[in-house]
Each structure stands twice: as structure tokens, then as C-alpha cells.
Design goal:
Blueprint lengths: L1 H17 L15 H19 L4 H20 L8 H20 L5 H9 L7 H23 L5 H29 L2 H8 L7 H26 L3
Length: 228
């Protein structure tokens, strides 16, 4: 595995350097953006794999409803705004993280169970990982959108982007609450994944906000304070 890394290290880093960022205004449309096409194709294959191997059909569709709405919206609205390559990568990394969680349900995620057993944790932490990942990965496309589409000044960009992530995280928790209210107790508990923690929603929101703040600060320094 390590030898493969060194073999592909040079072309990989060369490819990464060619990816468009927040500060680059020229973006290729999906029809000619090979990186976006490849990323979408890999995600769809991964999604199909997780679907075939999911352990809870009802929970799978509940977890993936927003994904099935989001991807077509992302594709069909690109004529109004094209995300940078790094934004596209960030979006699909988060979607992959979420999809893997939906495969077994967050509460019973196998990687989370391994962490729980290995480090003697009180709960399966995978849902915490995903909510943190929401902030970590989605802050970049949000900054991209606000900076390039809505022309938010750089001095306000991080604050407004983190606020945007905070709002989305809160809305998602309200969606979880709604699902729990209108489904049976077992389905609701599996989907919401509180695992007996009455402060679960609050912690999830805070983790998304912290993830966004830390990563967003890094990108602000990288792209605006220190230059490309």
C-alpha cells in the first residue's frame, strides 16, 4: 500500500494542484469537468454498494431522502453557479461519510462500533463523526458560494459561513425530530441515534459549528491571508 502511494504521489499531487479553488473564478461546466464527473460517478457506485449491503431498508431511505434531493439540485443548478473542484470534492466526501453511516444506521455503524469497543466508549461515536464532518467538509462550498455568488466581503466570510452551517445543522436536527415524531419509536431512535443522550441534538450542532470554524479559519488563512 505504501509503495503504491509513492508510485502515484507525483501525479496525484500534480492533479490536486490543478483543482480550482474559492479564489478562481473560472469553473468548467459539469459536461466538460472530468473531475466532477469522476467524483460523481465514484460516489454513485459507492452509494449503490451501500444500498445493496444496507441492514435496515426503511432507515436507509429515510437517511438518503435528502441526498436524493440534493444531488439533482446540485447538478441542475450549476448553470446559475458552478462550485470549484475543491468544493465538489468536499461535498462528496461528506456525502460518502453520511452514506456509509446510513448503510448500517449511525447507531450500529461498524467503524463506530470498532471505535467504541477499542477505546471503551460509552456510545457508538459515528454520528458525532458525521456531524463534525458536516462542518469540516461543507464549510468550503458554503464559503465558495457566499464569496463568489453573493459577493460577501472577505472580512465577513468566515463568520457568515459558520452561521450558515450552524443554521443548516439546526434545521437537520429539526428534521430528525420530525421523523421521530411521525414514525414508530424504534425507527425514530435508529434514525435520530440519540443513544440515550438527551443533549444529543445540541452536541451535534455544536460539533458541526466547531468543525466549520476550525476548517474555515484554515481555508481563510490559506486562500486570503497567505495567498494561493
Amino acid at each position: 500500500m505504501l509503495s503504491l502511494f509513492f508510485i502515484f504521489k507525483k501525479p496525484l499531487f500534480s492533479w490536486l494542484k490543478k483543482m480550482t479553488t474559492i479564489t478562481e473564478t473560472y469553473r468548467k461546466p459539469l459536461s466538460s469537468n472530468r473531475f466532477a464527473q469522476l467524483t460523481l460517478s465514484i460516489f454513485l457506485l459507492f452509494w449503490l454498494y451501500c444500498y445493496v449491503n444496507n441492514t435496515d431498508e426503511l432507515n436507509w431511505w429515510i437517511e438518503n431522502l435528502l441526498v436524493l434531493i440534493f444531488i439533482p439540485v446540485l447538478v441542475f443548478t450549476q448553470k446559475h453557479f458552478k462550485f470549484s473542484d475543491w468544493s465538489i470534492l468536499s461535498i462528496f466526501l461528506f456525502l460518502a461519510l453520511h452514506t456509509f453511516g446510513a448503510k448500517n444506521a449511525y447507531t450500529y455503524n461498524t467503524f463506530g462500533e470498532w471505535l467504541q469497543n477499542t477505546y471503551h466508549l460509552a456510545r457508538n461515536p459515528y454520528d458525532r463523526i458525521v456531524h463534525t464532518g458536516f462542518g469540516v467538509f461543507m464549510i468550503y462550498p458554503v464559503m465558495d458560494l457566499l464569496y463568489n455568488k453573493y459577493k460577501v466581503p472577505m472580512r465577513w466570510l468566515l463568520l457568515l459561513s459558520c452561521s450558515f452551517i450552524l443554521c443548516l445543522a439546526t434545521i437537520f436536527e429539526l428534521i430528525e425530530w420530525t421523523v421521530a415524531e411521525f414514525t414508530d419509536s424504534e425507527t425514530g431512535e435508529t434514525y435520530v441515534a440519540t443513544q440515550g443522550d438527551i443533549w444529543d441534538a445540541h452536541k451535534d450542532i455544536v460539533l458541526a459549528w466547531i468543525g466549520a470554524g476550525v476548517t474555515g479559519y484554515f481555508f481563510k488563512k490559506r486562500h486570503f491571508d497567505y495567498g494561493e
